[in-house]
Amino acid sequence: MVSMDKITTKNLSVYFKxxxxxxxxxxxxxxxxxxxxxxxxxxxxxxxxxxINRLNDKNTGFKKEGTVNIEETDIYQNIDVEALRxxxxxVFALPVxxxxxxxxxxxxxxxxxxxxxxxxxxxxxxxxxRDAYLxxxxxxxxxxxGTDLSGGQQQRMALARTLAVEPDIILYDEPCSGLxxxxxxxxxxxxxxxxxxxxxxxxxxxxxxAARVSDRTAFFLMGELIEVDDTHKIFTRPKDERTNGYxxxxxx
Length: 252
Ligand code: ADP
Ligand code: MG
Hints:
This protein is of the alpha/beta class. The chain has 10 helices and 10 strands. It has helices spanning 45-51, 81-87, 102-112, 118-131, 135-138, 151-163, 181-193, 207-213, 231-236, 241-247, and strands at 5-16, 19-30, 34-38, 62-70, 73-74, 88-91, 169-173, 199-203, 216-221, 224-230. The strands form 2 sheets. It has a 6-stranded mixed sheet, sandwiched between helices. It has a 4-stranded antiparallel sheet with strand order 2-1-4-5, with helices on one face. The structure holds adenosine-5'-diphosphate and magnesium ion.
């Protein structure tokens, strides 16, 4: 099977005022792969992810050079940012449960996009909660508050909420930091299951997680892409000594 490039950055540099957060990143993410991004803190991982749904645009002093394409479209040209964010879903480190019921949390996006029919919304709730491995734990209390769930459950609810608007790319920014091992395992299972359907980028400060889940892994350091390769290669015979140092825990 020939896999197509879904997301391509060319010579992408990002500045926040005088701080350069990304340095000349040229990287392609293939359709239906999971790309892991690892690297110590402040290496530009979140900035890179946030470039793909234009979440940096409003930060003070944001400036970018180079291009970010999704398929053929340069997403920094005249495009509908709302439509972009529907296509490119994001799961953040801290789960954000809205102060409403579980049902309302999951249907928030679809309702905003005009879906009103109860039967259709019911369907979306069941499908996405099943996909996020949360359905069995909450099916009898869909009308209780989302904020009452445990952190790990809230993160899976946040994932269901992302799925509910039918994205085709999902970005995860340290989605399991601070979660219990069972929720972490369920989220990793979900990501693997999603491979047939979505293109995914997983930023993680847990190198073992990247090793478990990603098809390819990119190592970022101080705003630079040091190397990107098949996950197995990155973790067994990386080309760059700095990658080796990081994965073997010599710094980070
Ligand atoms: P990581 O996710 O790898 O920890 P980030 O992408 O968050 O790294 O940050 C990369 C660099 O950009 C850091 O030096 C950080 O301080 C800086 N940075 C990120 N976001 C902003 C912002 N909104 N304003 C100013 N500097 C920022
Ligand atoms: Mg970050």
